[in-house]
Design brief:
By secondary structure, this protein is α/β, with parallel strands linked by helices. It contains 17 helices and eight strands. It folds into three domains: 138 residues, P-loop containing nucleotide triphosphate hydrolases (Rossmann fold); 67 residues, Helicase, Ruva Protein, domain 3; 129 residues, Zinc Finger, Delta Prime, domain 3 (Up-down Bundle). The radius of gyration is 25 Å and the shape is globular.
Length: 356
């Protein structure tokens, strides 16, 4: 049974499932979900806790299988945790997990934690067995567009809030810019505000003075910002990636891949293929799929040829080659390439305007 992370408290209040599987690559939310399950188990008398960490291909699953069947010496009920950091239990682990799910006793609650899983893993026999025997909770990262609302909800939970109206939205956006991509640090900054200021309304000046710039940027999120026409965010992310020591060649690769993908899709559409098929063949999916749907119809072949040429020049810059018409600094060149891509895609999309 699939459960949304935000619906987990309500489910736990109704009845404990025999087995919970929490998976995802957002450490803060995964930890909170696991803590909620532990707390609910303790409240219902599952006082003894055993933890198994699965590591390596030769992990011995016999103690795990035996733990669920063995009588406890200290408590009538026990919580068993199985942590699989790699997300890959292996052949023996797959068989063991399926057997485990087939014979769960009533006095045991099991918590399994995993990283983000791909479609192949979630369709596997072992994961299907876990889902069928209990509840699976997928923990997704909080995207930038949802981050201000997430911050507002967390502030309310600790008795604080920002101003109403547009001023409050600007404050939340400022907060989000400072913690983007680093949810654990965002949580810490929220706790800091709770310690520094009493419950009630917080001003922009209070948040500006207290919240550190702890944002962490992702090359692939940069790509989405560029295609989304978010100029200010693009510039902020490039500055952050450079400060974090990200390789310029990787940033160039991400931008160049988008340019090549746009050209492949535009060429396929011009050859008579439907846009959905063209995107599928170009391996465009997820958030980029929606962006391509807006951008591609208005793109011209001449625009794409200019972008391809610019990407080739920038490729030389990040490898130490100079060009008379481009900046000497590789990161300045990457900024120029990103802005060229923003301008070309945003200006050709009737539904996509340049914005911060």
């Amino acid at each position: 049974m699939q459960i949304r992370a935000d619906a987990l408290p309500q489910q736990l209040a109704k009845a404990l499932r025999p087995i919970y599987t929490v998976y995802g690559d957002e450490p803060l939310l995964a930890q909170e979900a696991a803590d909620q399950i532990r707390a609910a188990a303790r409240a219902q008398g599952y006082d003894e806790r055993k933890v198994f960490i699965v590591g390596g291909a030769h992990f011995d699953w016999a103690p795990v299988l035996g733990a669920a069947q063995a009588l406890s010496l200290f408590s009538e009920r026990q919580l068993i945790e199985i942590r699989i950091p790699s997300g890959k239990p292996g052949k023996d682990g797959s068989e063991a997990l399926q057997r485990y799910c087939e014979r769960l006793p009533e006095d045991v609650v099991t918590l399994i934690t995993l990283p983000r899983l791909d479609k192949t893993q979630t369709n596997s026999a072992w994961f299907t067995a876990l889902d069928g025997a209990g509840a699976t909770v997928r923990v997704d990262p909080v995207e930038r567009r949802a981050l201000p609302q997430w911050i507002a909800q967390r502030l309310v939970a600790q008795g604080q809030r920002v101003q109403g109206g547009e001023a409050g939205q600007r404050t939340l956006s400022f907060f989000a810019d400072r913690v983007e991509g680093n949810l654990l640090a965002a949580h810490q900054e929220l706790q800091k505000l709770g310690l520094l200021h009493p419950q009630g309304e917080l001003s922009f000046e209070q948040i500006e003075a207290a919240v550190l710039n702890v944002a962490r940027y992702d090359v692939f999120k940069l790509s989405e910002a560029v295609l989304g026409g978010q100029v200010a965010r693009v510039l902020r992310m490039l500055e952050g990636l450079q400060a974090e020591g990200e390789a310029a060649v990787l940033v160039h690769w991400a931008l160049a891949e988008d340019i090549r993908a746009l050209k492949r899709v535009r060429d396929a559409v011009d050859a008579g293929k439907p846009l959905p098929l063209a995107m599928r063949e170009a391996r465009v999916w997820g958030p980029k799929e929606r962006l391509f749907e807006r951008i591609v119809p208005g793109l011209r072949a001449a625009d794409l040829l200019q972008l391809v040429e610019a990407a080739q020049i920038c490729d030389g810059l990040v490898k130490g080659l100079r060009h008379p018409d481009w900046p000497v600094d590789a990161w300045a060149g990457l900024q120029r390439l990103a802005l060229l891509l923003v301008e070309a895609t945003a200006s050709r999309s009737p539904r996509l305007a340049l914005h911060a």
